[in-house]
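Problem statement: downstream parser choked on a complex file, so we are re-checking the raw output for the S-adenosylmethionine run. The parser issue turned out to be on our end (a line-ending mismatch), but while we're here, posting the original submission so the record is complete.
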Amino acid sequence: MNSTPPLSRSYERLVQLVADDVGNAAAVSWAHATAVAHHGVRHGLVAASEAPASPDAVRRVLDELAGAHPALSGFLDPQAVPLWSAPLNTTSWTALAEFWEAGAAVHDGPHRVDGYRLGDAYQALSRDARRSRALCQTPPWIAELLLELSLEPATDEVGPQNVRMIDPACGTGHILLSAFHFARVYRRRGRGTGALPGTQASIERALQTVRGVDLDPYAALLARYRLLATSAAILHSRIDQLPPSWPAHVACANSLLARDEPLLAPGQYHCVVGNPPYITVADARQRDLIRKAYPRVAAGKFPLALPFCELMFSLAVPGGHVAQLTSNAFMKREFGRRFVTEYLPQFDMQWVIDTSGAYIPGHGTPTVILCHRVRPPQGDTVITVRGVRGEPTIPTDPARGKVWSAIAEAVRYRLAENRLKKALAQRDNIA
Ligand SMILES: C[S@@+](CC[C@H](N)C(=O)[O-])C[C@H]1O[C@@H](n2cnc3c(N)ncnc32)[C@H](O)[C@@H]1O
């Protein structure tokens, strides 16, 4: 099935055009920062009220964002935002301005306030992020199901004030934003007890709930921006009017090896969710380091999905919920044998959902959803959703593809049934 996102080619043409002037990394940076500047202005998140009409105007918006909240200071960091060390010529600026202004209806970069389109635009613009780090956005309809399988039961168990979740390969934050929305409205869906929190309190609580880490400094910065932009938009305010104490807990680090990153300290999350990279690491030294750190799962030319699975389990509290959309290659190839027969059986597997037949934009690799609780297996039931056939054609709206709809319906039906059984059992215990 075709895995090239439909708009990728026009984004790549734009980058090529600008790259002749400033080089590839700065071209991606200029192209994306221009979309961020439009986003900030269009949604009233910054003081500037005019759409950026020059490279200097883009830089001014970034400068303002960097000062608007401590979590956004990275907008001034040339490592994350290489445009600071590469001035743009007029021809390149004209191409960029036309792309985002004239083509806004098509490219949609700055439109959605929670930045889903900005995240997708970064993936489409940056070949390096796609090829070297496997950036591949998790569509919101998948993120939502992953969270229903993990964050929802975790929140039911420990309460919305206490629950903590992390995505240790969070990219630009698609899963984080879905988790933020989930955490913010949890009590409004009639769950839990006590008074409904006010809008401010629910935003602050949602920001405290979600955490993320990514190797890519710009993706991590964008995830922070999206969390704060969404918070400000809900309050109809600018980002600099948010309390500076409100967090955007997203760090830039190599999650597999950064032992000193506080967000990656083991055993602190009730819920760990991810769509980790499936690639193998090209650099032999890095591969050796990861193999040494994860000897139980990383053998031969292992794909990163396996050490990421072990990392995700290690981040959870005992009994914590872990849900991952991952490559199913380990189920079919030799490198997965030990993983399947020795490693996974140590944990309480809840769900195996075959998503290999579903059309997931950008995901050329066949996938599976695995859900575990981090504790020894309890009972002998694992719920499986088995694939029968793939999508007959590429669906116009992938969220409503025949295969995905059937999967989502089957899972939600079972979840509802489980909730009902639990409620009836509780009622019987009380009576
Ligand atoms: C499939 S994407 C994840 C998408 C994201 N979960 C979302 O919600 O859209 C994989 C991500 O893993 C990141 N990554 C790759 N290797 C990593 C590592 N060693 N540590 C942390 N992040 C890594 C990439 O930068 C990329 O953003």
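For whoever reads this later: The chain has 16 helices and eight strands.
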